[in-house]
Fold these 2 entries.
Entry 1:
Amino acid sequence: MAARSANVNVRVEPDIKKQAEAILETLGVSVSSFFNMTYR
């Protein structure tokens, strides 16, 4: 059976988003993976 997914909308300041994406890219983690790990 295929895994189900749900969309999550989050509002953050553009500078914070850029910084977080840069950190995650350095770690080799996608934003989607980060949120999945955080929720778990």
Note: The chain has one domain: 12-40.
Entry 2:
Amino acid sequence: MRVLFICSGNICRSPTAEGVLRHLAHAASLELEVDSAGIGGWHAGDPPDPRTVRYARARGYDLSSLRARQVAPADFAFFDRIYAMDQGHLRDLHHLAPELHRAKVSLFLDVVARDLDDAALGREVPDPYYGGAEGFEHVLDLVEEGCRAIVAELVARR
């Protein structure tokens, strides 16, 4: 299974999801290939935002080796699941994805909503970039929730 997370510049939300899912998959002995990318390439080659790294590290996730990149056309064929962090990313990805691969693209937190009612559908992971500590902590809370749902689903299918 290959999973790709997408946010705006690949320095806050999507690398957090990449690191969290890798950690949880490893703990569950799941063979998973996980990556992240941004809609835009303005941070390509940069590490995650220092605040992202710091708050993730406090919860036991190491993001220090990650580097930002922009989503590429080949990603749509390579990855089995592509998760957008918000509705804007979802729209952009549906526009970029070839018709054949659009079904792979979904809103990240909709993975949690599969087991809940439709009212939970459409939740987004907000961008913490312009905020303070509470934004990064909230992102981690949401990302952990979503990644736990992905791992639970994959473990159940084993």
Note: The beta strands are 2-7, 33-38, 81-84, 105-107.
